[in-house]
Write a structure and sequence with these properties.
Elements: E1 6-7, E2 10-13, E3 16-17, H1 18-25, E4 29-33, H2 34-47, E5 53-58, H3 65-73, E6 77-80, H4 83-91, E7 99-101, H5 108-117, E8 121-124, H6 127-140, E9 144-151, E10 173-174, H7 178-187, E11 191-197, H8 208-226, E12 233-235, H9 254-265, E13 271-274, H10 278-281, E14 285-296, E15 301-305, H11 314-318, E16 324-326, E17 336-342, E18 351-359, E19 366-369, E20 391-395, E21 398-403, H12 408-413
Parallel strand pairs: 4-20, 5-6, 5-13, 6-7, 7-8, 8-9, 9-10, 9-11, 11-12, 12-13, 15-17
Antiparallel strand pairs: 1-2, 2-3, 4-14, 14-15, 14-19, 16-19, 17-18, 20-21
Bound molecules: ligand LLP.
């Protein structure tokens, strides 16, 4: 459920008309709903009630400081995967003890940054990384809580580019080698083993792969405890999918996911961490764009928008579907027409949808890409020297720009000339 609905013929973000935002901020622009973000975060929190838990928002999905601040004030922890994300979480006021540090290639500098600033745990992804962290922590005279991310070799049944839990993927250590790795972790100075970490992929629309992975983690917990390790925390990753189109079957709800967690690992007495990103942010954001031209092609018509692949890369990168709806509500039973919906970037890949049935829209009309809150703005670039897409946060009847659109001068001023030019 989200808070982008038609009222009196106009698409609203909570109590703000999207056309008012477009008039003030221009297009393209991302618009987020506070009520939706909070609602989704609270759903996860409620789903784990009864178990000690921390919901660590996956910062990579939507990393604007305003969003992180909002969620942090709500009590959210954060899952970060780079020094930059760590710095963002801290700048948003997230206490170190609520930050988990994931990612396959943490550098010494990133480790030092997080160890100095404080963190809840590092999720280790390989033995070489574990040895380096040991060295860094030991040299700083600290002991860092760690989990090892295990790769359970489970098929997440999602898009191959966002599946992470198969043995062919680069993530984690093979679960079959976990005992050896934990034995070494326990021997290394500067590390304190506190738990196990797993994350099998993103946009999962079926609970079965989670169930398979969490059962393996439960078994491993018993084995590692028998080996003498203090397994007190389980970080179960993120990945719960969202409905991208109304006609799709509805993915499982956080409540079902919480019940599954309780069923599979609830008996172990562990503190639970989860790292949802998409389900919190995805349907809490839209990308608002304007039709620049309607162009008649041979055998097809093109809607040429002012938003492009540099603003929202998901369709080009994963063939992802986003519902694209007019901001002025079409009359009931209004005729539709098939369009190829494209951006102005000079690549054929800059195509959002092919032969998409749309109500009649014309030049100057506004359209909204639904479900664009997660992995939207964060993956944007300035390709074709299109200034980075701005972001707006709505709360009730108020809205604020939370990242302004750079001017051309600002964009250009970031480059510097070498002294010899
Ligand atoms: N934890 C870890 C270790 C992750 O790698 C990810 C996502 C998450 C949590 C959050 O997963 P979520 O709850 O958002 O599914 N750019 C792609 C998605 C990449 C996901 C990467 N990892 C997309 O646009 O679909």
């Amino acid at each position: 459920m989200d808070h982008f609905i038609y009222r009196d013929g106009r698409l609203m973000a909570e109590d703000v008309a999207l056309e008012d935002i477009a008039a003030t901020v221009g297009t393209p622009v991302y618009v987020y709903s506070t009520a939706t973000l909070l609602r989704h975060f609270r759903l996860f929190d409620a789903a784990l009630e009864g178990l000690p838990h921390t919901v660590c928002f996956a910062v990579k999905s939507l990393s604007n400081q305003a969003i992180l601040t909002l969620l942090s004030r709500e009590g959210a922890g954060m899952d970060v995967v780079s020094g930059g994300e760590y710095a963002r979480a801290r700048a948003a006021g997230v206490p170190g003890e609520r930050i988990v540090f994931s990612g396959v290639g943490k550098t010494r500098e990133e480790m030092r940054l997080a160890l100095e600033g404080g963190l809840r745990q590092v999720n280790l992804e390989s033995e070489p990384e574990m040895r380096v962290l040991s060295e860094v922590a030991h040299s700083m005279g600290v002991e860092v809580p760690v989990t090892v991310r295990v790769n359970p070799d489970v098929d997440a049944k999602t898009h191959p580019k966002i599946a992470t839990g198969l043995s062919q993927n680069k993530f984690g250590v093979p679960i079959a080698r976990a005992r050896e790795v934990y034995a070494e972790a326990a021997r290394l100075p500067g590390l304190r083993v506190v738990g196990i970490d797993v994350h099998i992929g993103s946009q999962l629309t079926d609970l079965a792969p989670f169930e398979a992975a969490y059962r393996k983690v439960a078994d491993l917990t018993e084995v590692l405890r028998a080996d003498g390790h203090a397994i007190e925390r389980l970080d179960l990753g993120g990945g719960l999918g969202i409905p991208y189109t109304r006609s799709n079957e509805v993915p499982p709800l956080p409540l079902d996911y919480g019940a599954l967690i309780k069923r599979t690992v609830g008996h172990l007495g562990c503190e639970i961490e989860i790292e949802p990103g998409r389900l919190i942010a995805g349907n809490a954001g839209i990308l608002l764009s304007r039709v620049v031209y309607v162009k008649r092609g041979e055998g097809r018509d093109f809607l040429i928008l002012d938003g492009a692949m540099n603003d929202l890369i998901r369709p080009a990168m994963y063939d992802a579907w986003h519902d694209i709806v007019p901001v002025t509500e079409p009359a009931a039973g209004a005729p539709t027409r098939a369009f190829d919906i494209v951006g102005p970037v000079c690549e054929s890949g800059d195509t959002f949808a092919r032969e998409r049935e749309m109500p009649e829209v014309g030049e100057g009309d506004l359209v909204a890409f639904r479900s664009a809150g997660a992995y939207g703005a964060v993956m944007a670039s300035e390709y074709n020297s299109r200034p980075l897409v701005p972001e707006v946060l709505v709360d009730g009847d108020q809205f604020a720009v939370i990242r302004p659109r750079p001017t051309f001068d600002e964009m250009i001023a970031r480059d510097t000339l070498p002294p010899w030019l």
